[in-house]
Specification:
- With 307 residues, the chain is α+β, with helices and mostly antiparallel strands.
- It has one domain.
- The protein has three helices and 22 strands.
- Strands 10, 11, 12 and 13 form a four-stranded antiparallel sheet that branches. Strands 5-20-19 form a three-stranded antiparallel sheet, with no helix packed on it. A three-stranded antiparallel sheet has the order 16-22-17, with no helix packed on it.
- Strand 8 and strand 9 form a beta hairpin.
- Helix 1 packs across helix 2.
- The radius of gyration is 29 Å and the shape is rod-shaped.
């Protein structure tokens, strides 16, 4: 690993950057990534590339009728289950190109063994880009993870942009209050929404930093912000898609770090609430409604991975 200490001009002298100044450049790399992420997520109607998630809920069993007396509980249909599949998150990876250094002078300079030298591509990666990828792929959701994604039950989160107003997952349960004996035969599926889960992208923050020196012909010169930031953006975008050990990807419940809140599928755990309705001497009705306590059936996490 070749982490270098870049040189800069302080207005009077050439100096080596402090670790704090290098960290500021790493933060700028993160910001540059946020302006044009090379690995992005979108919300689609169906058939997204990330693994699907299922929401399950109980329904009433079919109603039973008799002309002679109430159908017994043993003969009425048990509550059923509705399963809804969510595969709305789609991942795309941009085509990127490696930053080039055709004359071995494109990158910042450092002092070593009595001479001033230009950093190599590996030096650039080790000093600025790899630390930025490490920040981007943590479980935090602050500005040092800008351009990456997380899940929230809120459709509006400070410091982030909602990807779509369409939830990527919805947890529903049977609405037990909607089922009444007087309504037999009740509609089988009467759900209520417990939580919606939304996809967000973290916003960037344009941090200040000290631009390093590079070799311009035979002279040392300070990068313009635009020139240096172009190098940083191209470098981080390519590393995130193509450099083994530092490629960014997302998945559901796979390898990586959880991003945002868990997406929980809850369901009622009862065996059925047997109810009857007398209409007249020739019309006896019975039906089993959903009942019980809400329990967790599945837990899903959006994960960010570095590989």
């Amino acid at each position: 690993m070749a982490v270098r200490t870049p040189l800069y001009w302080d207005g009077s002298n050439i100096k080596e950057m402090s670790s704090a100044q290098i960290d500021q450049i790493v933060d700028q790399v993160v910001y540059q990534y946020s302006l044009n992420p090379s690995v992005s997520l979108s919300v689609v109607g169906s058939a997204g590339s990330l693994d699907s998630m299922t929401d399950t809920r109980k329904t009433a069993g079919a109603a039973s009728t008799s002309t002679t007396g109430f159908p017994s509980e043993s003969t009425t249909a048990e509550p059923g289950t509705v399963t809804v599949t969510y595969d709305k998150i789609d991942q795309s990876t941009a085509s990127t190109s490696q930053i080039t250094d055709t004359n071995n002078k494109a990158f910042p300079v450092f002092y070593s063994s009595g001479s001033i030298q230009s950093m190599s591509l590996t030096d650039m990666q080790d000093t600025f880009l790899e630390p930025a990828i490490d920040l981007l792929t943590t479980g935090s959701t602050g500005t040092q993870q800008a351009g990456t994604y997380f899940i929230s039950t809120s459709s509006s989160v400070s410091g982030a942009t909602l990807v779509s107003g369409t939830p990527v997952f919805t947890d529903t349960r049977a609405n037990t209050a909607a089922y009444t004996d007087s309504g037999i035969p009740e509609t089988l599926d009467q759900p209520t929404t417990i939580n919606n889960y939304y996809l967000h992208r973290i916003n960037g923050s344009d941090t200040s930093y000290t631009a390093p020196l590079y070799i311009n012909g035979t002279d040392l010169q300070t990068y313009t912000d635009a020139a240096f930031e172009t190098i940083l953006q191209n470098g981080i975008r390519h590393m995130a898609t193509s450099t083994t050990g530092f490629r960014i990807s997302y998945n559901i419940n796979g390898t990586g770090t959880n991003r945002g809140t868990a997406m929980i599928n809850t369901v009622l755990n009862g065996s059925g609430d047997y109810q009857t309705l007398f209409v007249n001497a020739d019309d006896y009705r019975a039906q089993e409604f959903p009942n019980g306590t809400a329990v967790t059936a599945n837990t899903y996490y959006l994960k960010i991975n570095k590989s």
